[in-house]
Amino acid sequence: MLDILRSQSNGNDSVINGHVTPIVTGQHIAKATVNYAPQQRAADAARWLRGELSIKPTVALAARTFGVSAPLIAEARERLEQRERAKRHVLVDLRQRAAGLEARIDHDDDDLDPKTDLGPYWLCNAVTGKVIWPTGLPFAGIAEALDCLERERALPPGADIAEAWVGFGKFFGK
User: CA-CA distances (angstroms) from residue 40 to 14, 49, 128?
Assistant: First the structure.
């Protein structure tokens, strides 16, 4: 269903809660005067309040809304983007490491159980697809699980694999 909604989008829409909603830029709202009558502005404001319209903010609008300067927002945005890039690199490294152990890392933000899952990543057997650890894990948990999996693979035949997993979770658990 979501793919159908996305395919109907003309690039000026977003999908919110499974519904296609038009996007209006904050700049359009601020600068449109001739062809954007007060009645249409009021109708758009009402649609926005109902979640039927998305507004793409400008830096100036964000600065006014949050009471901070545009340069401060630019710095914060750069820090967030750097963090996201670093996270992607770490995930690539972890996935390569997992592949060497015949494992794979799956990601699922949608079905997290806050009572048991500690993060959105699942370590699975790459051949069978079976989950290696029964709960979702954060990055640190995946890295530690890969350490345990390496220790498990190094055990002699017939050894108790629980030895390889002793202490698992002490660095990232609740």
Answer: 20, 14, 56
Instruction: Tell me the pLDDT tens digit for each residue of 30-80.
Output: 777 778 888 988 998 899 899 888 888 889 888 988 999 999 999 999 999
Residue spans per domain, the chain: 2-56, 80-165
* Cα gap 117→136, rounded to integer Å: 5
Q: The whole model's pTM is what?
A: 0.58
CA 11 to chain CA mean position, Å: 21
